[in-house]
Amino acid sequence: MRPAHDAVARAETDPGAVVDLFVTETVADRERDLLIRARAAGVRTALVTDKAIAGLTDTVHPQGLVLVCRRPSAALPAAPRLVAVLLDVADPGNAGTVIRTADAAGADAVVFAGESVDPFNPKCVRASMGSLFHLPVFQERVPDDGCARLREAGLGLVVADGGGELELGADTDDLLARPTAWVFGSEAHGVRGDVAAAADHRIRVPIRGRAESLNLATAAAVCLYASVRAQSAEQAANPVASAR
What we know:
The protein has helices at about 1-15, 25-30, 30-40, 50-55, 90-105, 120-130, 145-150, 175, 195-200, 215-235, 240-244, and strands at about 20-25, 45, 65-70, 80-85, 110-115, 135-140, 155-160, 165, 180-185, 200-205. The protein is an alpha/beta fold. It folds into two domains: about 1-70, no CATH class; about 80-244, Alpha/beta knot, CATH 3.40.1280.10. The strands form two sheets. The protein has a seven-stranded parallel beta sheet with strand order 6-5-4-9-7-10-8, with helices on both faces. Strand 5, helix 6 and strand 6 (about 135-140) form a beta-alpha-beta unit. Helix 5 packs parallel to helix 6 and helix 5 (about 90-105) packs parallel to helix 10. The two termini are about 40 Å apart. One of its GO terms (biological process) is methylation.
């Protein structure tokens, strides 16, 4: 139910963010406070049967509550420090998990570029566990346009690439201390060659064991938190410059 609470919280500050709430009687009794908040925020609420809920969702075991939300508008904030870019990522579970990870890492935005899955795909929304409502998430169908937009915002482009010329570690700390947009590709094909070639750097995550590769969401977590660590160290070392 966490995503439902996050969506209603969004509606409390952004009227119209949630349009309808459908809920079974059992869940309504358990989530009475949520319904009170939703109605106070102007969300239309309706009690429905378990069968009706099943028809409104594609999950095998519905939780008894469905929200209809307006697609939020999204834009890069001023002076972003960390952005995750998903390029041609088709798996909604992986994509939603990256949104959740980026949110946890304090990223400023997540960009779905190229032929990536719709970030508002139901499976992607569920995998984000409410993080979709916490930070800007938007689409850039033309990767070159998305990259140009990120560069204009002052971000360096770094591709996560198993064959990258740099290995993630102490030697990349100075690089990652700067404002960075990490670009992640699909597990099957990685980042397309033209985008990788145009990036500022290509960094590989070291694999010490015998695994062939990392899951996309796992690799994204490793890379994003490497940036968090490097940027935090830079801010601690230069508090005056960081405050400007």
